[in-house]
Amino acid sequence: MRKQVEQIPAATVLFAGDSGDGSQTIGTQMTETSAMIGNDVATLPDYPAEIKAPAGSLAGVSGFQLHFSSETIHTPGDTCDVLVAMNPAALKVNLSKLKDNGILIVNADNFAQKNLRLAGYADNPLEDGSLEKYQVFPVELTKLNRDALEDTELDLSDKDQCKNFFALGMILWLYNRPMDYTIRWIKTKFALKYPHLIEPNILALRAGNIYCEATDQFATTYEVKPAKFSPGTYRNIAGNTSTVLGLVAAAHQSGLQLVYGSYPITPASDILHGLALYKNFGIVTMQMEDEIAAVGVAIGAAFSGSLGVTGSSGPGLALKSEAINLAMIAELPLVVCNIQRAGPSTGMPTKTEQADLLQMLYGRNGESPLPILAAARPTDCFDTVYEACRIAIKYRTPVIFLSELYIALGAEPWKIPDVADLPKIETEFHTQVDGFEPYLRDPDTLARPWAKPGTPGLEHRIGGLEKSDITGNVSYDPENHEKMVEIRAEKVKKIANEIPPTDIYGAQEGELLILGWGGTFGAIRTVVENRFADGQAIGHVHLRFLNPFPSDLGDVLNRYKTILIPELNTGHLRQLIRSEYLIDAVGLNKIQGQPFHVFELETEIDNYIRN
Amino acid sequence: MKSKRASGIPRGVPTLTQKDFTTDQDPRWCPGCGDYSILAQTRRIMPELGIPRENIVFISGIGCSSRFPYYMNTYGFHTIHGRAPTIASGVKMANPDLSVWVITGDGDALSIGGNHFIHLMRRNFDINVLLFNNRIYGLTKGQYSPTSEQGKSTKSSPFGSLETPFNPISLALSAGATFVSRSLDTDTQHLRSIIKAAFEHKGTSFIEIYQNCNIFNDGTFFPYTKKETKADNTVFLEHGEPLVFGLESDKGIELNNFQPEVTTVSNGTENLIVHDQFAENTTLANFLARMSDMPDMPHPIGIFRSVQHTCYEDLMTDQIAAAKQQRGEGDLDALLHAGDTWIVE
Predict the structure, then answer these.
(1) Which residues of chain A lie closer than 8 angstroms to B95, CB-CB?
(2) CA–CA distance, A571 with A569 (Å, rounded to integer)
């Protein structure tokens, strides 16, 4: 029977199963293929902190959501068109995300008594009619996969490890996408360590594909055409990879050696892993004994004239705060990456949140102003961390770079920049002996000289004690202390000169401005695009610089009746805006470890704006 | 000028004097503090090391001793409590040609910085560590430290400290340090020779210096430093020599059932322990280190261990060179375009 092909503008697929089922792998592969055939893509991996929680349990469910589209998109989608549930627990955790009449593919072999009980189902949902409003496709996936691999040498457990590719083969068929990219990936991925798994995984992939073709289960397949992109070369990239490349690029363009000190922590470890690969760029990565040592080596390297960078997540930042303050008063360039996760304390390490902003702004003793930049989306991590490096070097100050789990792990297509177009990073080491003073400043930036050890005639001492203006000698003079506090604050304020005029999307004035920062970008932009197209007087401003604020921000805010600030915290930016501009900004706050859904923002907007 | 240093530190630099290493900042230590002597010996020995001032960096943590960098006319960084080893590691990694010195105390290195201390020892950067041990917290005015004796009565332990003290030499050895030594603030000649030996050792060099805090812990090391008692309470380690001590050099140390025992030299020296500072195996060094925990044994002074292992910074440099050789010098444009890409016309 010839299947019917339906053109649709976009689709969202959610792969879910036990944490060892390989949902992240096939999700990533579906993303790669979709990106390669020209769709815009956005992803949301959602996995447990445990490496392998008890099999079949709700706690062990790992999911990967992918939104692919023929139009520009900004989010991984609120709800799904297709849910692939490898067991009852995956079904239970994710069913609420499936659209009415959505396609539900389940591995029927896993819906036996034990797994049902583990997931807390009294009755089998495949039999009790509770799934009536969905198109349910129970597939004996385990059995079919084992059959397909019957002739291979693998034992049963190894065969079952391949069944995620059977599932992927089905989804590729459903959306009329080629298997080539996945096959190429399997060949490369397993070539070195597990060459015996190449053929079985490819077999499983093809078997899933053929199964759909051969059976009459699916009457319709779907096609999502390529999206329109501006001309250029593209690749698919996750936020943490984008951060890694931004750091490598900044080191390369500044001519400095990158020294990255880190201690493993979710979700920042990928940055350490990534940079460790690029030794041929002269990059030094040091996995230290703790978070403090990690920032310590970066500070030492900065003193010695390298680009010192450290990276962690909230709990690690708490440990680093004293050392960051040292770099602040010593006025050394340093980039501190905080890939935020849900707190407080250990919190929910694999869930997203934006609740470290005030920690980054205020979480140090004494008057300790530091610039803070936040990335808005996976691809923006590159530009933002690059800018953080540029500011740190130019102003001789630690700079906080904020990312968050949602964009760190999420991926989207990236238009690869031309190296020649990257902003210049000028590095000037002080060598002039005459008139040298460690704290004699550049009048424009207030940066002090970067006089690195090894430079003859510039021997000097710095440290954490308050220093005398200009000479840098230890000083307890009352007026001097106040002056130094003011100078350090003034230096950070001057960074506002680096910020371009605020870019407002949508209405340039009117009823409602949605002000955001960080990973809320996608959801906000989606809503504002829709509502602005409908003629509503609604605008969107997304801040990269959270300290200092852009010079024109106050004027921009005054052009709207209402300022709405959605944040994945209890209102950090809102507090800052209210105190800085005395504007009665309102908040939309979600603290569930999950990003905003578009519909949540839409509902809220309706409270402030009339059609 | 004899120097084991590798590249980067030019020979034949102009002759410097102690004065060239003195800053215009007046030391702020209590009159009579042992720190003055350590500072003086360091300033005196520096010109003999044959390296230009600009290639020397002193890095300290927090505490009385940690003011030290302000008084050395070299590069210096007075950092935060316990963390000097981490910052020194970064300085050395970023520029392996620098001569890096960590100045620390018993609280700084062994309490708040204990973790960094052991990891610095095992990584074996070519860094010299001078630990001023006075068995007390001086700057915070007299609390017991991790090297204070059990039962010690201080402001924070009015009824006696409950804690077993660290033996810094044992700790450094256990952490894998390649150069481990002990000297005395008052024995100026010995101190200078040890500082020089530490400098000449390529790898992390650790010196524990018995230092008197005449305000909060006066006399804690007098049995080992005062002329009248020193000879009977210390044994100076010399490589290849038997362990002999005493005012008349009449006492020796032999091994009896895995325990050190004091014997008289007149009984013959053939059974005395002979020091081997170059032994890769740390059994002897550990044994010697533990003698200072035994009430009836003299404290060994000198070099416990001195072995050659490749330094962290050299391994890193080699790894980077190998990667460049294998993959070619990093090409940013190629890196950005790595993996699957597609072109939109």
Answers:
(1) 304-305, 452-454
(2) 6
